[in-house]
Protein: FAD:protein FMN transferase
Amino acid sequence: MNTSFGFTAIGAGWRIDTERPLPEELRQRVGSLTEDFDHVWSRFRADSLITQVAQAAEGGRFEFPGRDEPLMNLYDRLVTATAGAIDPLVGRDLELLGYDAHYTLIPDEAAVDGRRHRHSWGTDTHRDGATVTTDGPVVIDVGAAGKGHLVDLIAHLLLNGDIDEFVVDGSGDIRHRGPNPIIVGLEHPTVSGRVIGTVPVRDAALCASATTRRAWGEGLHHILDGRTGRPVTDVVATWTIAADAATADGLATALFVSEPAALSEFDFRWVRMLADGRVQWSDDFDGELFL
Structure:
């Protein structure tokens, strides 16, 4: 890839690499898409649709963009496959742990310990296509797969704009298109500048997640078990390759809370590092690990 277009989206740095510069009109469409996506799904914006859902004291009926129905379909599958360990209604748990709209980063331990009812997707929400109905206020957080979904949406924009070869890098969540694979390093979760291996990616997506990426205190990070509302402890990093970035992103999170065998309905390759330093990988992982 000869040219790069860098920009900021959903609070992170992104880059699109292509053989030729992106036309200005296509750059503007990418910008409009990312802004609208943030306006819909951000927990950190007072004007977002997600904030409206969270503030609806009596619940309500909320129309999401049709383009995001595949994201909700994916969450349906992940919730079922992980028996609720992946759940987009962990937003309130993240808030109580300090990862809230004001970035207080101070957990309310009393509220966490005293919480008696935790909301769950499919029980406290009801969905008809891209329409979500709630019975009361719920805090939706799509951090498990949302960024990957946005990577896919941008990839579709590029394909519709006659861009046949590209790499969309959403701050580490990558989707590649083209005849020549790229070699991606699997970044060590705790040792800066070190990788635990490499893997070729061609016409596919690679996503990674680690408990060290968004951490704000001892044992406090953004990857929660939806059944307990608490940060996970047994796994520290995951890497997944799938046909699309939303699936790879969601499964990278699912590997923190589920054994790989429970995710067998999905077609993906994976590597994960456990808290004790051991590394596990799928039989079909075709990269190189430096163990």
